[in-house]
Design a protein that fits this description.
Length: 202
Amino acid sequence: MGYTAIVDYGVGNLKSVANAMSYIGQKTLVTGAAEELERADAVILPGVGAFPDAADKLRESGLESALLSQVGKKPILGICLGMQLLFDQGEEGRICKGIGLVSGSVKLIRTEFKLPHIGWNSLEFQNGSPLFRGLDDGTYVYFVHSFCGYAAREEDVIARTRYGSSVVAAVSRNGVYGCQFHPEKSGEAGLQILKNFGDLKR
């Protein structure tokens, strides 16, 4: 049985993601080694904190290039800040280059509601994705964020939520997926999403 590599680049919600994957019977390896990403069947890029710091650490560690080398070879999932890093750039604190796997920018949520956005919100699915197999429109998941991705291509958006305005909740492009919410903290629905991701292994 292969494993899913959880990328350790000095930031991230590593343990809870690993625990959730273990709970659904998925073997994982928390690693900062490029060769382990190469050997893995799938890769998860978690993240909590600020976009510029995370992008710098990912780049300085060499893990950005290691991650890019796996695109198209195996499914990749970015969670929360990990999803934001998939975009071309972030505007948190300063304009900072992202990984560039999803076209668009990460900006402060345009809303009259209080930030950060913390709590359970429902998903509106679009563009059909295997990541949400078995889930109904309106499924609730758990969010903690003040910034969100603004996708340049609507076809890359697979779920939205509402928080005073429409917010991109999940994206997909060329076998790369991103969830702005935390599936590992989203109960049965989140576990189903992680299981669906695990089922994408080639």
